[in-house]
Specification:
Blueprint lengths: L22 E5 L3 E3 L5 H15 L3 E3 L2 H10 L10 H11 L3 E10 L2 E10 L4 E8 L4 H19 L10 H4 L5 H12 L13 H17 L4 H14 L2 H10 L1 H4 L3 H14 L4 H12 L4 H13 L3 H14 L7 H10 L3 H8 L2
Parallel strand pairs: 1-3, 1-4, 2-4
Antiparallel strand pairs: 4-5, 5-6
Helix pairs in contact: 1-4, 6-7, 6-8, 7-8, 8-9, 8-11, 9-11, 11-12, 12-13, 13-14, 14-15, 15-16
């Protein structure tokens, strides 16, 4: 049976050729049951960051996971059942998949779910969060990340939320509002979308407020830079990108903002150069590898795009995500029989 195809791309193998291959992983969207809260979004983002920073996993960015779900006809804002989560993990072809739900429990929350493996097996987890504070959110993210390791590797220290995400977050709700609006924006070059002026204004206002209320949390300012770049305020975005250069290199959102600025107004290969640097800096983040391969294809360079897809498959042999890109690149260079065979895998 043909596996579902997702429009993603690949990474450069050369930067990580001497390192052990990272297991591919996706943290599925966490959705709170009952009253709306900011905790689900922040636990998801910070758990993904902790797992990526551990160096053990090649992680799909939260925005990528949402776009993949939309492509499969799933609503990222709707709670997944356990069986839907397992099917999505199987469809992605990742070696680790994390599914969780958040339920209200008195003044706090219960975070519960399971970690799935592509070859079967699951490890349930459950943790109580006393409230919606930054400390509780970090605890939930780290417990979720520890559950991923515990299923396969019992004796490793649990992944921790990186310091750049822990820095004095005083307004978690405002930060979550910014991230929720960023989540709704298209990222993939394969599927550009039209965004209304009102949506962009709301995005910028939310991220600006998050940055103002959390001045010691550089991820919020990086998100504002991306929001400004998306909304066309290139002067403001470029100023923030430069101001954040020292701490920004540790943050995927900073690289995304820099890429959009370079790709939109730079000379031919400026955007590609930014993505090359981002892949080198963050080989654990598949987001940049995806954008790099999509950009090569958009530039009409199928041979380079094919090399990128193959490099990704070397990094993540079981993943289904590069199949569509590989098939298109093979067809573009005239290798139609191979393209057909790859599309049927």
């Amino acid at each position: 049976m043909t596996r579902p195809l997702f429009m993603l791309a690949a990474t450069l193998a050369t930067a990580a050729s001497a390192e052990p291959r990272r297991a591919t992983l996706a943290v599925l969207p966490i959705v709170a049951e009952g009253a709306e809260t900011h905790v689900d979004t922040l636990v998801e983002w910070e758990a993904s960051a902790a797992l990526a920073a551990s160096g053990r996993y090649a992680v799909y960015h939260p925005k990528q996971v949402r776009e993949l779900m939309v492509g499969e006809g799933l609503d990222p804002k709707a709670a997944l059942t356990a069986s839907e989560a397992q099917r999505l993990v199987d469809g992605l072809g990742v070696e680790r998949g994390v599914w969780a739900r958040l339920t209200h429990a008195g003044a706090g929350y219960r975070l519960s779910g399971a970690v799935y493996g592509a070859a079967g097996g699951a490890r349930p987890f459950s943790v109580m969060l006393p409230d919606g504070s930054a400390a509780s959110i970090e605890r939930g993210a780290e417990e979720l990340a520890a559950a991923v390791d515990a299923l396969w590797q019992q004796h490793l220290p649990p992944p921790a939320v990186p310091a750049v995400y822990r820095s004095n977050l005083v307004d978690p709700k405002g930060w979550a509002r910014c991230l929720e609006r960023l989540n709704a924006l298209p990222t993939s070059l394969d599927h550009p979308g039209v965004v209304s002026a009102g949506t962009l204004d709301d995005l910028v206002a939310s991220c600006r407020l998050a940055a103002q209320r959390n001045p010691a949390h550089p991820a919020t300012a990086s998100a504002l830079a991306l929001a400004l770049a998306t909304a066309g305020d290139d002067v403001g975005a470029a100023r923030l990108v430069e101001q954040l250069r020292q701490e920004g290199e540790a943050l995927p959102l900073w690289w995304l903002a820099r890429f959009w600025l370079s790709a939109r107004y730079g000379a031919g290969d400026d955007g590609l150069a930014v993505l090359d640097a981002a892949v080198k800096q963050h080989p654990e983040q598949l987001l940049f590898a995806a954008l790099r391969a999509e950009l090569l294809e958009a530039q009409g360079r199928p041979t380079a795009a094919l090399e990128a897809a193959r490099a990704y498959q070397a990094l993540a042999p079981g993943a289904s995500t590069p199949l569509s890109l590989t098939a298109r690149a093979l067809a573009a260079v005239g290798r139609h029989a191979e393209a057909t065979a790859r599309a049927r895998e």
